[in-house]
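Supplementary Data S3. Sequence and structure tokens for construct A.
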Amino acid sequence: MLESLGSLTGSPWIYAVIAVSIVLDVFLPVLPSGVLLITAATAAAGSATAAGNVPHAVPDILVLTLCAATASVLGDMVAYRLAWRGGDWLDRAIARSRRLTRAQERLGEALARAGGAHGVLVIVARFAPAGRSVVSLGAGAARRRIGEFLPWSVLAGLAWAGYSVALGYFGGQWLGATWLTTGISVGALFIAGAGAAYVVRRPVAAREREAGT
């Protein structure tokens, strides 16, 4: 059972650990912030079940969701501002990376539009591996206005946090708060990430095929 995680899962410190992990993983995408968030949500499901479906004080799914979403936006803004002020060294680094160069080109159009499928790119990229890093740094390096980027960052953070917490919590409610449940929920998060990566890459691949014909 996930109660064996010890005092951290049932302590308010879990929120701080999750928040720090999410803020930093915009620079270090290898940090397991999603895994940690799902684990805490699964533990919350176990606490609710043990208390007769009355949510335990810690961890609380609403606080987990708001904490994760807020940390996601904060990390995005830090990366955005650093890229905005990056100067020539960042421009050179982006120029050496085809991935960042392509992302910067796509975001020029995506962030300039306030609705439709173009703006959704920012939300979808939040689920893709390293997609958040590419989007935040690309938006800052492209000098996009904060009003063009921030609303999509908020929506992306809420969507990712809500999805991750829901995976852990409802998985724990339906299958029991076990490590197997956590593994299944994490697998579902990775599947969503793979799907998001495909969606983000598809327009670029289509344009490259057209250019080659």
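Construct B, processed identically:
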Amino acid sequence: MPKDEFHSKLQDDISALVALVGDSSNLILDPDLDAYYMMEGVLLKLPDAADLMLKARLLTQAQGPAASRAARNTDLIRLSGLIESNLPRTRYGAETAFKSEKTGQLRLRLSDAMQTY
């Protein structure tokens, strides 16, 4: 199996595992806003972002004739829009969780990670 296909399959398998854990645990159904938004981010938004970034990376590494290069560029533009739209939604969820969590520990622990993201 070529390296690109292996990475894509691995990402698909990880996404399936995350979905299974989320569905089995009912974590996403937590009524507390802080827990709900953190679970939504961890189980839905971050895996989606990782998948989009992987697809974009694989497209930038692909080789081929000029015609396929034009198609790859179109796909990269589409993916970059999806990646860009994922970021504010993820930030919104994190900010809502930070505001809803009463101790302030969530913001302290995750603010650097959110800034990096």
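The two ends are 31 Å apart (CA to CA). The chain has a mean pLDDT of 83.
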